[in-house]
Hints:
By secondary structure, this protein is of the alpha+beta class. It has three helices and six strands, in the order E-E-H-E-E-H-H-E-E.
Amino acid sequence: xxxxxxxxxxxxxxxxxxxxxxxxxxxxxxxxxxxxxxxxxxxxxxxxxxxxxxxxxxxxxxxxxxxxxxxxxxxxxxxxxxxxxxxxxxxxxxxxxxxxxxxxxxxxxxxxxxxxxxxxxxxxxxxx
Length: 128
């Protein structure tokens, strides 16, 4: 009698595919994104940096932010409006100072809010 040994060949699953090149959340900073070139975190090309800037601007403009100024690597976004101080002064005079409380509250809590987006050389999109 011949004993034949059968060998079970276990095929290992291929390693998980690496994420495609693109912009991903930075694990070290929740406010930032970083560029993954397909193999390592790397420096993006100027076109990739411009694309990342356009993507961040598109995201924030959906939330009523507007672009105040922009370069290839930095943009300043603004939300809200400045109070009209002349109008509030007139209303304060007409109401014998009562409107001044509203004016002070608007000056403190209202107005414009600014946000800066910067794309760093290593591909991080930093918002402040």
